[in-house]
Structure formats: C-alpha cells, structure tokens
From TrEMBL:
Pfam families per the UniProt record, alphabetical: RabGAP-TBC
Transmembrane parts of this sequence: none
Region feature Disordered, mapped onto this chain: 1-91, 229-256
Amino acid composition bias (Basic and acidic residues), ranges on this chain: 229-239
Protein's GO biological process: negative regulation of septation initiation signaling
Descriptive protein name: Mitotic check point protein
Subcellular localization, as worded in the UniProt entry: Cytoplasm, Cytoskeleton
Residue intervals of the Rab-GAP TBC domain: 152-369
Alphabetized GO MF terms: GTPase activator activity
Length: 433
C-alpha cells in the first residue's frame, strides 16, 4: 500500500523573460562565473525587479496545497528551514503520473513547460512568469529523460542544472580568487592529507581534474567555513571560565560546537570531486559545492558530524521497514550502517564508482533532494540482497558496494519511498539540516 505522496524539493532563482546571451568569459578577462542565459544567471538581475521571488511564490503555494497528512508533521518542525521536500508537485505524484502513462502506452504527461527541452527551460526560463511550472517541468525532465551526456558523463548543461536545483547564488569569480589568494587555510594540512587519495582508481577523474584544482577548491571552502565560524564565535571569556571544545571524533578535524557552521572534515574531498568533474570552472564548482554543504547538509560537517550519524541510523530504520529479513540478518552479524555505510552517506554515494553513474544519480538527488540519498543506499542494499544473505561473512560483501547503476537505484528508490511512514520520511528530510 502506498504511503501519502512525498513532496519534491527545490527552489530556483527568479528569472527574467529576456536577457542577453553571454559567451563564457575567461577568469582572465571579466573575472565572473561562466554564464548561460539561464535561470541561474538571470536570478541576480531579477532581484532588481518588484517581482516576488520563486521561493516566496512556492511558499504560498505550499500553504494552499500541503496535503492533510503532511501538514501536521511539517508544522511540528518549523526550525528545519528550507529543505528539499518543500516544493510542489509531490515526487510520488509526478512519478506515478509518468509510470501510469508508460504503462498505458499513452503520451507523456503534460506539464506547463513539457513541450520545451530541459536546455531551453534552463537557458531561457519561463516566458509566461510560471516559475513553479518551469521548475516542475525541469524536475520531470531530469527524472524522465535525464541530462544528456557523453559516455564519460560530460555534459555542457549539467552544471547549470545543478546550480539551479541547488539554488546557488551568483558569485563573482573575484570572490573565489580572493579566497585562493589568502593562502593556506587552518585546514590545509588535513586537505593535503586527503586530496591525493581522491578517486585514485577512476581514470576519468584523474585525467580531467588535477590534485592542485581539488586543493584550491577545498582550501577556499575551508576559508569560507572558517570565516562563518569566526562570525558566530562568542566573545572571548576569561580563561578560567572558558569551556573546552570537544574534538572531532571521526577525523580529528577542526573542532566545532553547538550551532556553529561546519568545518572541513575528511571525506569532503570525495564529495567535491563530482563538482570539479562536471563544472566548466573551479568557481562554478565552488559555489555549487558550498551551496550543497551550507543549505542542504550542514549537519554533515558540523560538530561531530551528527547529520551523518542520524542518516546512518535512518538507513538501519528504513531497511528494517522495507526488508525486515535482510535487516535482521545484518543485525545478527553485528553490522549496522555505521560500520559499512558511513562513506556512502557522507559523500552522497560519490565513493562508489563509476563516476558517470554518480553524476546521473546526483541529477536525481539534486532535483528531488539530497536527503533521498538515504533511501538510495537502502535501495543498493536490497539490490545486493541475495549476495548478502548468501554470504556467511556479509561484512566482506559490504566493504565495497557494487558499481552504481543509477537508473536501477532510482527505480528501486521510488518503490521504497512508498513504503516509508510519514514520520520516518520527515526524519529523512530533516536529518542533514
């Protein structure tokens, strides 16, 4: 029996109906991010108009259209802020519409901008002011048609779709360069200890992304997070009354307490890798990566990485709901998600090759919410089910997950979502915030 529909998530900047087409400038000339005539690029200009933002429109739509089964639980969690389950239409409604159409052999379901290509939607935006409709259509096209790319996963469109779906702000390249020119951040030694190990077995990544590029990106992120911490640091108190800061338990990374912003933690190098691979510039990768960290999963890099540990507990909980036999077998073997799924949760499955499949899975996650990575991990476990149950030492099986098959994982994930109770799903939505 299907549970109530799951809300899809996202917000994109306000678009203008028309704008000049900009050729991608070099950092040596205009020192600005490469731009398309896109929803992302037009967002900054729209801020100058009296037109309400897409987020404002979306919030009003939610207040009118939240389902009765969702409204009570959402109202209990006002502190979670913008999350990836806040947009309409519901993910399951959209997916069920597509599935029903395919099963009946009929034409594809009609969305307001369904007649346009994904590239056209991203490049030009809605010409009728229907921002929610354009976003709905873009999400549908991501899940139904995918983002066209070569066998190696390269696409001229993908990074711009990601920037829109992640609601990333416009950032001058000079801002990124300023962070680079500050030199080594407090986390520099830890970064250098991680970068040389990033996706070492992936020839596609090693051929396209240099270690120097990864170091620069992570060092800039570390400075940005460091600055945010400094801004929120309380005034100094006398040494006698100053409390000690707890150390980072997982990696020994920079300490953090309470509500402070995140810090650099081990594993961020792998999480950053797909952005550098997909982007056309380091500055693009930076603004997308920073938006992911600070808007979508800040609890993954805050304190003792509490968001990651909450996610791991949810992997166990969801697996027990959808496959009790498999969950009990792993429990009997002393295998909780904390033991085998930590990298998959922290890196949104980027730790599992091949990289082109990671990119395609991320298309789905950014369209409907990175929180769905929890369900994607459970989907991988159910795909491995027979191999795990038939192994006397399943820990050996779980040391490395099978190569990603994004289409299969997405299909299984959609099926699992229907089985998750509302309260557990809400926990999934908010676990990384």
């Amino acid at each position: 029996m299907s549970s109530p529909p799951r809300d899809a998530a996202r917000a994109i900047p306000v678009l203008l109906p028309s704008a000049e087409i900009h050729a991608p400038p070099s950092p040596r000339t205009h020192r600005t991010l490469r731009r398309l005539q896109s929803a992302h690029a037009l967002g900054a200009r729209a801020a100058l108009t009296p037109q309400p933002s897409l987020i404002s429109q979306q919030r009003k739509a939610e207040q009118r259209n939240v389902s009765p089964t969702r409204s009570s639980s959402l109202n209990r969690s006002p502190q979670r802020g913008r999350a990836n389950s806040d947009a309409t239409p519901p993910l399951m409604h959209q997916m069920n519409t597509i599935t029903a159409a395919r099963r009946a052999g009929s034409t594809k379901p009609v969305f307001s901008h369904g007649h346009l290509s994904l590239q056209h939607i991203i490049r030009d935006g809605p010409n009728d002011g229907d921002f929610l409709g354009a976003l709905e259509s873009a999400r549908w096209k991501v899940i139904d048609e995918g983002i066209k790319s070569a066998e190696d996963g390269m696409s001229t469109l993908r990074i711009y779709v990601w920037l829109v779906l992640l609601d990333a702000p416009i950032m001058p390249t000079d801002d990124y360069l300023a962070l680079i020119h500050r030199g080594a951040s407090p986390a520099y030694a830890k970064i250098r200890n991680d970068t040389f190990r990033t996706l070492t077995t992936d020839p596609l990544f090693r051929r396209r992304v240099s270690e120097a590029s990864l170091i620069r990106l992570l060092n800039a992120i570390a400075w940005k997070l460091h600055d945010a911490n400094e801004e929120q640091r309380p005034p100094e108190r006398p040494r006698s009354s100053r409390s000690l800061r707890p150390r980072q338990s997982f990696t020994g990374s920079v300490s953090s307490v309470g509500p402070e912003p995140g810090v650099y933690v081990q594993g961020m190098n792998v999480l950053a890798a797909p952005f550098l691979y997909a982007a056309r510039s380091e500055a693009e990768a930076f603004v997308a990566f920073h938006s992911l960290l600070t808007r979508e999963c800040p609890a993954y890099i805050r304190g003792a990485m509490d968001g990651v540990h909450r996610g791991l507990a949810l992997v166990d909980k969801v697996l027990a709901i959808v496959d009790p036999k498999l969950a009990m077998y792993l429990t009997a073997k002393g295998l909780s998600a904390e033991i085998y799924a930590f990298p998959s949760v922290l890196t949104l499955c980027a730790c599992t090759p091949p990289l082109p499949e990671v990119l395609r899975l991320w298309d789905f996650l950014f369209a409907y919410g990175p929180h769905l990575n929890i369900v994607c991990i459970v989907a991988q476990l159910t795909i491995m089910r027979d191999q795990i149950l038939n192994s006397p030492s399943p820990n050996k099986v779980l040391r490395s997950f099978p190569p990603l098959n994004s289409d299969l994982i997405k299909s299984v994930t959609i099926g699992i979502i229907k089985k998750i109770p509302d309260d557990v799903y809400l926990d999934i939505v908010s676990h990384a915030l």
